[in-house]
Amino acid sequence: MISLSSSSLVASSNHLCNCGLRAEIRTCWNDEMMAQRFYCCGSQNANSCYYFKWLDDEPLEDDAIITRLNDERLHLQDTLHAYETRVQELENAIILERSRKMHKALTSVVGLVCLMIALFVAFLVI
Ligand SMILES: [Zn+2]
């Protein structure tokens, strides 16, 4: 029986699926824990073209599997770091925008208070 790994994208391939997208590289594992990679549709939604083509002619040897898994781990770490950096940038942008809005609101309140004081003083003088 063959089972497919759920997340085995190693890197972008130059292979195109029938959608014209870059095909994903996934790994198929058999009962002996031997791995064989294949290309599949690069679409992330339900409109898959079901493209399939073996990348490896035969299942990989143990050393090759370890190397591939390590490459995948490094790729996922890089992806995670890029997402964490982007999240931090967005959080900083949100904080900056909130500060600008708060400053604008305070400026309006201060202007309104000054106007009220001026009107009050003018009323007292008259
Ligand atoms: Zn496709």
How is this structure best described in words?
The structure is a single chain. The chain is α+β, with helices and mostly antiparallel strands. The protein folds into 2 domains: 1-60, no CATH class; 63-126. Helix content is 51%, strand content 13%. The protein contains 1 helix and 4 strands, in the order E-E-E-E-H. It has one helix at residues 62-125, and strands at 3-4, 24-29, 35-40, 52-54. It has a 4-stranded antiparallel sheet, with no helix packed on it. A hairpin with a 5-residue loop joins strand 2 and strand 3 (35-40). The chain binds zinc ion (ZN). Zinc ion binds at residues 17-19, 21, 41-43, 48-49, 51.
Short description:
This protein has 126 residues and is an alpha+beta fold. The protein has 1 helix and 4 strands; from the N terminus they run ββββα.
Kindly report the average pLDDT value.
85
**Rounded to an integer, what's the Rg over CA atoms?**
29 Å
What structural category arises from helix and sheet content? alpha+beta
Helix content: 40-55%
Shape: rod-shaped
Secondary structure: number of strands: 4
Quaternary: single chain
Strand order of the largest sheet: 1-2-3-4
Order of helices and strands: EEEEH
Query: Whole-Å distance between the termini?
Result: 96 Å
Structural domain count: 2
The hetero molecules present are: zinc ion
Poorly predicted regions: 1-7
